[in-house]
Amino acid sequence: MIIVMxxxxxxxxxxxxxxxxxxxxxxxxxxxGSTRDVIGAVGDERGKAVLQSIESMHGVESVxxxxxxxxxxxxxxxxxxxxxxxxDTLSIGGKEMVVMAGPCSVETEEQIIASAMAVKEAGxxxxxxxxxxxxxxxxxxxxxxxxxLKLLAKARELTGLxxxxxxxxxxxxxxxxEYADILQIGAxxxxxxALLKKVGQLTKPVLLxxxxxxxxxxxxxSAEYILSEGNQKVILCERGIRTFETATRNTxxxxxxxxxxxxxxxxxxxxxxxxTGHYQYVAPMAFAAVAAGADGLIVEVHPDxxxxxxxxxxxxxxxxxxxxxxxxxxFAEASDRLL
Length: 339
Ligand code: PEP
Ligand code: MN
Known about the structure:
Layout: E1 2-5, H1 11-23, E2 27-32, E3 37-42, E4 60-64, E5 84-85, E6 91-92, E7 98-102, H2 109-122, E8 126-128, H3 146-159, E9 163-166, H4 173-179, E10 182-185, H5 193-200, E11 206-209, H6 216-228, E12 234-238, H7 256-263, E13 268-270, H8 272-276, H9 279-291, E14 296-300, H10 318-334
Parallel strand pairs: 7-8, 7-14, 8-9, 9-10, 10-11, 11-12, 12-13, 13-14
Antiparallel strand pairs: 1-3, 1-4, 2-3, 5-6
The structure holds phosphoenolpyruvate and manganese (II) ion.
Residues 104, 130, 186-188, 209, 239, 271, 274 line the site of phosphoenolpyruvate.
């Protein structure tokens, strides 16, 4: 149920409503809108009619059911896109698009620092780099783990870029959160519910990637796991789904962007690197994602892709990335966005 507060409701009204929701056995979540607050009451769907009595409380305008199975992620609780703060000066979901870029994996100090300087120079606002890598094969490079996190922190110190890096299990989530500015949940873990709950209990923003065989509804239900634990800072990422097509590594489902924009208030970014698997296709799909309404991009960039430990074939060299960024500005402008 959504409890819509009157625009003139005072703090006491809201606190009484929160308490009543808890007494009725539901979990309240306050969602701040531009003109008024709404309170999402989530819990057992079967007995939700009892919440209707809240309508007579002071400061309450209406109590309405949320029709979608995903509640807190739904546009029904909030019409405007959520603006997720990343640092004091950077947020995602507003007019300014955010580009996250860097190598698939952190490999060496030289590699991550060269990557960070290059992507910053080209205009990226966030550095990406995996320290814990969820690989399809147990024989592939698994990442530098904590050493990789330390190198990311060093690159942040040198460039000022916040970092996004992947969390692969609940056990190491606290460790990753000590270093990362954004916690990435990868496609292979997008329905790892224990992990989703764990990052839902942390305070860092979460970049949730779409699982490679997930419907949009399932994707939003995964976001709901994070939101329902209390972490409202969720960014969605379309990174391609598995289809019969083999010319590209995945099929970047760009139609998911306008669909998500219609269904959720969470910001949506696109990953044209994993979405295509080939560096040649990254820039065109990045431009298309902006046209489709993406709030940002995550792009793999490596100073020496031929020798990368993972995902070299889809990684852009710094010069190509800079060229893409220059052209991207024009697409952003045409989409009424800033970059
Ligand atoms: C990655 O970002 O390097 C990655 C493993 O992505 P995905 O989870 O989308 O495959
Ligand atoms: Mn990768």
